[in-house]
Amino acid sequence: MHINTNLRQAAVNRRDRRNGAPAIRYVRALRAAALLVGLLLAGGSCAQQSTGPMKVDLEQAIQLALAHNHALKAARTLIQQSEAEETTAAIRPNPVFTYDDLFIPIFSPSQFSSANLDNITEFDVGLSWTFERGGKRQARIRAAKDQTAVTRSTVTDNERTLAFNVGQQFVIVLQAKSTVDFAKRDLDSFQKTVSLSQDRLTGGALSQGDFLKIRLQLLQFQTDVYSAQVALVQALASLRELLGYEAVPSDYDVAGELSYVPLHANKEDLQARALNLRPDLAAAKQGVAAADSQYDLAKANGKRALTTTWTYSHVSDANNLGFTANIEIPIFDRNQGEIARTHFAIAQAQETQTAAQQMVMTDVANSYETFHTADKVVQLYQSGYLKNADDSREISEFAFQHGAASLLDLLDAERSYRATQLAYLQALGAYMVAVEQLKETVGTRKLP
What we know:
Largest sheet: 4 strands, antiparallel
Strand content: 5-15%
Number of strands: 6
Shape: elongated
Structural class: alpha+beta
Helix content: over 70%
CATH class of the largest domain: Mainly Alpha
Radius of gyration: 43 Å
Strand order of the largest sheet: 2-3-5-6
Number of domains: 2
Number of helices: 10
């Protein structure tokens, strides 16, 4: 009896396990699906966070501009054109093939026989070759290569100018972003003042007229935010034009902020570096070499070429071989005008080189003084004026809220604080632009 009971209980347990297995598998499947959905949602959220608007820093922006700016791309084709001129300069004169056939009896068809044609007709076959005297080809090649060198330096100077334009516009974008952030913070701060004034008005500690004056001032803060946002959009659009529209998406952004990074360099060292690095000065120096090669080419062109011709003639059943040579006699035209012009062009190139050297010295001196002045202005603001403006606003606001200062004092302190902060942002922007200009005038992106 006890054994039968145990058997029945075991059978029931097996039946329950069989009936519950699908349910257990179903629950496990639901848990796995939930876990998978959670992982997918988390991955999508992480992907969404990582794929924000594209941000570029200053050096990346310059590299994008050098790679994608269409005006610079157009200038670079001048190098390829100049290299093609080198190919043209190295081309030798083509040989000339001549053939003539005389005394053909076109109007006497009866005379068209091999015997008659062999006796009465004449034909000549000739091959001419021109020998260039005076080293014309070598002079042409040298002149073309010297011009290519000038073109390369000129294009490099275009890259220098583009890098400065990008740096300047990048700073303008940073200044616009800082202005937007400041305008928003200032608006939030003044909105708190308006809220506190509302409480004072409700409590009878502030008159309706003073409250309306405070509230009207809120309009200025709001318009400042909108104006700063418009300036930021325009600055980003101008920067994108320099970078190339296809280089960055329409919703791109810049990475960085207005900051003061002191530089330690003296004017004389910077001028010495500029004399070695400026590509426009290098182009002027190479222009002297190009003028020399043009002068040598003009003298070579004054030498007249010699043309020789070898001729085979068949005349009245006679075969003959002939040789002729001709050369122009330089009695009147000896290319003397072009020789004189290129000689004076050498003096012009030398004066241009001297002028370029002086311009480099002046550019570095002016940009250094601009940088030095901007550096002093930033240090003035950081020496205490920014803190003074902030403290003045906080004191006036606290005193006004406790009835110890007039509304005029509060608004005047607020205007002074806003003007000081905006002037400081402008001073930082002017300093960073001055640094970019100093880099341009020296001819390098690396300054001490």
